[in-house]
Amino acid sequence: MMRMERVHGQGKCAGNKVGTKEQKMKNFSEMGLSAPIQKAVAELGFTAPTPIQSEVIPIINDSRKDLIALAQTGTGKTAAFGLPLIQQVNLEEKSVQAMILSPTRELCMQIAGDLQDFSRHVKGFNVVPVYGGAAIDGQIRQLRRGAQIVVGTPGRMRDLIGRGVLRIDQIRWLVLDEADEMLQMGFREELDAILSTTPADKQTLLFSATMPAEIRRMSGQYMHEPVEISVGTMNAGADDVEHDYYVSHAKHRYQVLKRIADMHPDIYGIVFCRTRRETKEVADKLMNDGYNADALHGDLSQAQRDYVMNRFRKRQLQMLVATDVAARGLDVNDLTHVINYNMPDELEAYIHRSGRTGRAGKKGISISILHTKETGKVRQLEKITKKKFNHARIPGGEEICKKQLFNMVQNMEGVEVADSQIDQFLPEIYQQLEGLSKEDIIKKFVSVEFNRFLAYYKNSADLNVRPASSGREMRSDVPSGAGRKEKRSNRSDLRDDGSARKERAGNSEFVRFYINLGSKNNITPPRLIGLMLDTTNNRELNVGKIDIMKGFSFFEVEARFADLIMQSFSRNIKHEGSKVKVELSNGDGQGERSAAKPEYQGKRARKDASVAGKHSAYTPGKQKKKHRKGVKSRY
Q: CA–CA distance from 183 to each of 42, 187, 193, 238, 573 (Å)?
């Protein structure tokens, strides 16, 4: 029977001295780390260890006890196990001494990158990441050159072990990072196969945000009398996260999402959906409505996934719409919001979602959009997370307009004026405006951008639903006929003319190309981007506007990549069995095929004859450094 010794929060290991000290450690210099490691940590800007680091580092440094550490994502787990492992490995040996398993490719690469940063002054140390979705030959060559630590995903690790390339029969440490995620993703068979071949005297370190029964069973089977550390309350939510929920009818879910985004102009967050299809639909709607968003789901190739995630990390996107599986491994520290467009099937997954915001001492907000029959989940979540959930009111049109108005004024106040360039135009401008008072000028300049927003939210419906004490259907606060007005106001004729999609990276020029693939070839903007990235093998490719037609498409790339596109596609490239043909578009960009009719999209889309319509236009090009903070391109 497995016996556990528990350490909760900052407390001591009850009746057991396995490395915890009587007083909380104040800085890394007190933790017995070598001078080269301390120097690297200081250069990275870390001064005081986090609670999980204070508890875990001494245990790994001073004992051979197995360990179960319960802590949220973003609490510093990588340094907690990484720093002492770098110190403990024998640098004279090039054989694998520690193996770290992680659920996703992205997390694997992140852990390996962190270990390289921590060991920058440790001569002779080497770490190799191994994961699927990349050529295995290069990973085999790295392993044969030697490494003290290997970080990998369960599937690729098992493959390399089966090939006899990765020898783990002599490892001294085994780390299972985000163990609950690995089990939830279906890696139980791979984990059993790997763990069964490891030496019995190794030190096993298991890190998890939650403690489901499956983790208990695994620890009982593969661990020996582990010490259990719980930083905070088991399965609890992060302390720096505010939990809000909005209640409306299911049919208004997307409208609620838009109002949340409009109420927070500087939002930088992840919108979680339940299915791939829903993820695509929500992301497409947001992009068509002018929001700075994109999708991350399982249908994307690895190249497309890398492209989207890189844009999000660089804050070229404000909202990333994703499924739980697709978002695993995406580690971003400055998220302001996590939005649950739909609640997860397993409510414990809410902890992982909400834990992506409120990191590094910053506050974050986790928002859930609930329909009238889901409010019972709030009580369950409060029990699981040990947090209070606030029932917030969905903001109305007047409230949103006020927020956007003052945000726009604030942005205008902070605009840097290029005096040398604008001075020459000022005399004529002054003459043009001399008949207007200061107050009139302010009103008119504000109204230039604000009138569209006012028109959109004019007579907007109240989307809130009053919670009822009984189990009966809750009654809406929406007045009679208001829903129809809201629906009409959402139509594309109140949207912007698409100027937000015309932004380009700096002053770079773009070249327009024709490709003989269209919607009938199952081509979508993300798939076309993936085809370009895979064919050119260049992740720096800067893509401009994309127009998807039925039988062909047009796309733009930055001029410096034009030759690369032509050379790459001159080879025998095929897409789903069809030979791909790419040509420079003629003259104004319409080319010799400009007379071809674009795919039918209705009266509103046909009014712009030069492209395939709003719903087929896509501009993933690099955004300007300062993103939209007002309402300029939304409606």
A: 35, 5, 13, 22, 39
> Alpha-carbon distance 120 to 125, whole Å?
9
Instruction: State pLDDT tens for residues 529-587.
Output: 888 888 888 777 888 888 888 888 999 998 888 989 998 898 888 888 788 999 988 64
Asked if 53 contacts 80 with a C-beta cutoff of 8 angstroms, the reply is yes
Nearest CA-CA partner of 498 in 251, 256, 289: 289
Beta-sheet strands, E only, within 251-406: 269-272, 293-296, 319-322, 337-340, 364-370, 389-391
What pLDDT sits at residue 508?
57
Look at the block and give the residue holding tokens 């994109």: 294
Residue 604 structure tokens: 């509103």
Burial of 427 from C-beta contacts in 10 A (0-12 / 13-18 / 19+): exposed
Helix H segments across 496-561?
A: 525-536
pLDDT tens for residues 84-141? 999 999 999 989 999 999 988 888 988 999 999 999 999 999 999 999 878 899 999 9
What would the two tokens of residue 499 be? 């100027």
For the chain, percent helix, then strand, then coil, each to nearest 5? 40, 15, 45
CB 291 within 8 A of CB 318: yes
Q: How far is CA 370 from CA 35, 257, 357, 367, 391, in A?
A: 52, 11, 20, 10, 10
Q: Among 19, 98, 22, which residue's Cα sits nearest to residue 65?
A: 19
Rg (CA), the chain: 28
| Tens of pLDDT, residues 326-385 | 776 677 778 999 999 998 877 777 887 888 888 767 789 999 999 888 888 888 888 878
Neighbour tally for 254: CB within 10 Å? 16
Q: CB neighbours (10 Å) of residue 375?
A: 16
Question: Using CA atoms, how far apart are residues 615 and 621, in angstroms rounded to an integer?
Answer: 17
Token pair of 34 as six digits = 């070598």
User: 226 with 206: CB under 8 angstroms?
Assistant: yes
Residue whose structure tokens are 């140390």: 125
Return the structure tokens found at 164.
Answer: 């006899």
Tell me the percentage of the chain whose pLDDT exceeds 90: 36
